[in-house]
Amino acid sequence: MQSKADAPKPRLEGSLDELPIPELLSRALNEAKGLAGAELELAKKDVLSEAKGAVRAAMCFGVAAAAGAVVLSLLAVALVLAVGGAPWVALVLASGFALLAGASGAAGYGWLPRDLLEPTRRRLTGDVDQLKRDAI
pTM (2 decimals)? Predict the structure, then answer.
C-alpha cells in the first residue's frame, strides 16, 4: 500500500518549457477547443443580431413600399385626370415611374451589405494570427 509520501504529486503550474510534449499538445488542443466554442457562440450572437436587424428593416421597407405605391398610384390618377384623361399622359407618367423604380432598385442594391459577419471574420483572423505567433 502506498503512503501519502509515495503518492504521485500533482504537477504545479510551471514553465511551459518544462512540460512534456504530450501535455503541451493536450493543453493546446483543449485551448483550441475552448476558443472554437467561444468563437462559435460569438458568431451565433452576431448572426442573430444581424438577422433581427434585417427582419426589422425589411418589415419597415415593405410597409413604406406599399404605402408609397398607393400614394404614387393615387397621384398618377389625379394627374392624368387633371390633364384631361388622355392615354398618352398616362403612358408618359407610367414611363417616368418605371424609370424611378429602376433607379431606386439599383440604389437599394448598392446599399446592400457586402461584408456579412465582418466582426466574426476579424476575430477569427486575429485568433489565427495569434495562434501562429504562439506556435512559433
Answer: 0.42
